[in-house]
Amino acid sequence: MTSLYRLRKPLLKWYESAARELPWRQTREPYRIWVSEIMLQQTRVAAVIPYYERFLARFPDAAALAAAPEAELLAMWSGLGYYSRARNLQKAAQSFEKFPSDYEAILKLPGVGPYTAAAVASIAFGLPHAVLDGNVMRVIARLTCDSGDIQSSKTRDRMQQVAAELLDPAQPGVFNQAMMELGATICLPREPKCGECPVAKFCQGRQAGKEKELPVKLRKMKMQQIDRQVLIIECDGKVLMWKRTDAAEKLVGFWELPEPHHLPRARIGERTGTFRHAITNHNYTFDVFRANVTNVPKGFVYINISDSGGIPISTTARKALQTLASE
Ligand code: SF4
């Protein structure tokens, strides 16, 4: 990370003058900060403000929230959606007398994950825990020119580490909010306002001209489910197989068991088992059947499986043959 920590000063100076005035920024009371963080999960800032104010007017502290009838609680939440958030808030409020004041204890509250715990711990208690939400990840990916997939836990761990190193230990709560504010108002997803950015001179992504390409979010490939059948045709202790000869295939030279489309005249008998096999974005389910043929078609050979040590047999054929053992 080298000298990136030098951005603390300009970032904090910018935040001091540019921060939006939001109701939860007027307090360091853990209950109020916690309620705001829970409301802000999955909901935009502008939508949260009126709910936040009404909620706190009705439930000004954790004791009032703990004692509220559920119907009233849900009515106050009505319109924000994701009602489990409200139920968890109440469940948590009922679990303590005094709001927990360390990160681990906050993290144990129902409905609280690492992001919320770090936000409450740092803003309310000044504890050095760095937040990593979508905004902060985008800022860090650009600052450090990190092209790792932000959906991978490895990338997130790396970014969490950078966020922890960047964090200003003297004022972690303000610093966390400044990072989030930068992501929310300047370092925007599609059109970052680099010309107005207080930390532009530290930004490696911008220097490389890659700010709009970052962060990288790879689309997860949908796994395709495919059902297949393989046939085990035995004769004198040997098994009928065929060899892959297509040089373009990865498995060229490997021996396979036949499938029904290879042997349309085969008489298919009982099933010996089922197994799964995944290759890249395909999930195969193989059903294995015993079968008989009267004539051995061209390209098929009976192989002595018991001494097949020197013969390359494909993984799926091996798995299919193993079903014989468990018959
Ligand atoms: S210079 Fe641009 S890309 Fe870099 S942190 Fe600032 S706004 Fe984001």
Task: Give a verbal description of the structure.
The structure is a single chain. Strands 2, 3, 4 and 7 form a four-stranded antiparallel beta sheet that branches. Helix 2 runs antiparallel to helix 8 (114-125) and helix 8 packs across helix 11. The protein has 13 helices and seven strands. The two termini are 59 Å apart. The chain has two domains: 4-207, Endonuclease III, domain 1, CATH 1.10.340.30; 224-325, Nucleoside Triphosphate Pyrophosphohydrolase (Alpha-Beta Complex). A hairpin with a 2-residue loop joins strand 2 and strand 3 (238-243). It is an alpha+beta fold and 327 residues long. Iron/sulfur cluster is lined by residues 139, 142-143, 186-187, 192-194, 197, 199-200, 203, 205-206, 211.
